[in-house]
Write a structure and sequence with these properties.
single chain; alpha+beta; elongated
Amino acid sequence: MSMNMLKIVAVPMHKEGRKFVAIFAAITVLLGFIWEPLFWLGAGATVWCYYFFRNPVRMVPQQEGLVISPADGVVSLIEEVVPPADMGLGDAPLTRVSVFMNVFNCHVNRAPIAGKVTNVVYHHGKFLNASLDKASVHNERNSVTLETPSGARIGVVQIAGLVARRIVCFVKEGDSVEAGFRFGLIRFGSRLDVYLPQGITPQVAVGQTAVGGETILADLLGTAPARIGIAE
């Protein structure tokens, strides 16, 4: 039991968060000299910052053709839309699955499928509420296109939100990634869009909680059973 609790508490932190935790900790110490209750408020904020940048180990499904969630959060939108032209996904409507992350979710972003990075495009933009549909067009975002060995192309877009002010991407065009590979993160609260190939039906529903690197969004080969559930 104690070992299980230790695994929950001692979650590793992504290196991108080190400087932020250090800043929060330094401010906390200064607040302590001013007034003790402020120290404890700062300590709580420091712990929150640590967990915001947590980088947990995930059990990534290994079955070929599975598209997995690139982030922790809630499936906020599923709709047919024309993908951004610069992603190279064509001009026909594709199914877009959006996963909305709040400030308490793990914000490490993972590759939804194994493949080669064929396109990375960054767009400056606004910082509207990331749960809104128009955030896909108007918000600051970073688009990554992946092509599988079989030729299927998946688009994944990091979208900044009201609080988020920094999109970080660790991959570049020509890189090869495995499913679940940590390819980026967004600070602090945002959304990930996944564009599925034409004719592919998602296996999640709006309102469903997704776990990055584990939850199956779709099956390109049609060999996995459908996983859409019924709300209790």
